[in-house]
Amino acid sequence: MNILLTGSGGFIGSNLKEYLKDKYTLLCPRSYELDLTKSDDVSDYFKSHEIDLIIHCGTIGGARGVQDKESTIDDNLAMVNNLISSKRNGVRIILFGSGAMYDKSRNLHKVKESEIGKFLPFDLYGQSKMKIAEIVQSRSDILCLNIFACYGYNEKSSRFPSYAINQVLKGQDIIINQNVVFDYLFVEDMQRIVEYFINNIPKHKIINITPTQSISLLEIAKLVKEISCSNCKIKIKNPVMNNEYTGDNSILLQEIPNFHFTSMKDGLKKLYSHIEKTLINI
């Protein structure tokens, strides 16, 4: 099977590339090789390549602490629409949504897929993901997998799990700006979920891929301390809890009833070992 994997330079895309590279024939053009916002370029690419499935990880915006570009909505919609118009009939698309489509400015407690569109996201990235979800709902050949938080190998060092691990490895305290409850999906679980849907047609079009067990940043910090046997301190700057950011996974478990999620402790152990080895080899 020939799979077009977009966004292979990002966290999700690079981990999928590593996981799938020996199982399928992957086409992984980078954005400087194929601009997905340009319809003619995408059309020409499909004419010159045999593509059986598309996994679309490419996205614009959504970076923490960075204001979305004015073109975020148009660019993200253009990428999806160009893939749709260029692919041949029967080729499925698996793409990634975000909890941002439910509007992160409010408290999101195990939010369900049925709530999409009930609140307009405050940010352009969230609005673009909501509009893409509307496209998905109107078609039978696209699956949207909503990620709320995903952690694992080669994530940005500023991401909290990696940040906390790096702090204890340096013998420094873990600083939490504001505690919040997340649904953190381990990257290996994400890989297994995507592989399942490569080989199985889902009954649903939009699926939250979130673990059943939610966890706070403070709890993660405590687990990192336990794993590392560190004596570092955990400090919280703002004592008020931030809005929860969790999604209901009932539909996911209907699709994959026996799916086993990696516990946060086990996932952090693997990430700790990975980061520790990386630092040793520097």
Q: What general form does the structure show?
A: globular
- Estimate the mean pLDDT confidence: 97
In percent, how much strand structure appears in the residues? 15-25%
Rg over C-alpha atoms, rounded to the nearest angstrom: 19 Å
Helix-strand topology string: EHEHEHEEHEEHEEEHEEHEEHH
Query: Spans of 5+ residues with little confidence (pLDDT < 50)?
Result: none
Number of strands: 14
Fill in the CATH topology of the domain at 2-152 and 184-211 and 244-261: Rossmann fold
Tell me what the CATH architecture of the domain at 2-152 and 184-211 and 244-261 is.
Answer: 3-Layer(aba) Sandwich
CATH superfamily heading of the domain at 2-152 and 184-211 and 244-261:
NAD(P)-binding Rossmann-like Domain
Strand order of the largest sheet: 2-1-3-4-6-11
Main sheet attributes: strand count, strand direction, barrel closure: 6 strands, parallel
Helix content: 25-40%
Kindly, what is the distance between the CA atoms of the first and last residues, rounded to a whole number of angstroms?
37 Å
**What top-tier CATH class of the domain at 2-152 and 184-211 and 244-261 fits best?**
Alpha Beta
Structural class: alpha/beta
Q: Counting H and I runs of at least 4 residues, what is the number of helices?
A: 9
Could you walk me through the main structural features you see in this protein, from its secondary elements to its overall organization?
The chain is α/β, with parallel strands linked by helices. It has a domain at 2-152 and 184-211 and 244-261: Rossmann fold. Helices cover 38% and strands 20% of the residues. The chain is built from nine helices and 14 strands. The protein has helices at 11-20, 39-48, 72-86, 124-137, 160-169, 187-199, 217-228, 250-255, 264-280, and strands at residues 2-6, 25-27, 53-56, 92-98, 108-111, 142-147, 149-151, 174-178, 181-182, 184-186, 206-208, 215-216, 234-238, 245-247. Strands 2-1-3-4-6-11 form a six-stranded parallel sheet, with helices on both faces. Strands 5-14 form a two-stranded parallel sheet. Helix 1 crosses helix 6, helix 3 runs parallel beside helix 4 (124-137) and helix 5 (160-169) crosses helix 9 (264-280). The chain starts with a strand and ends with a helix. The model has no long low-confidence stretch (mean pLDDT 97).
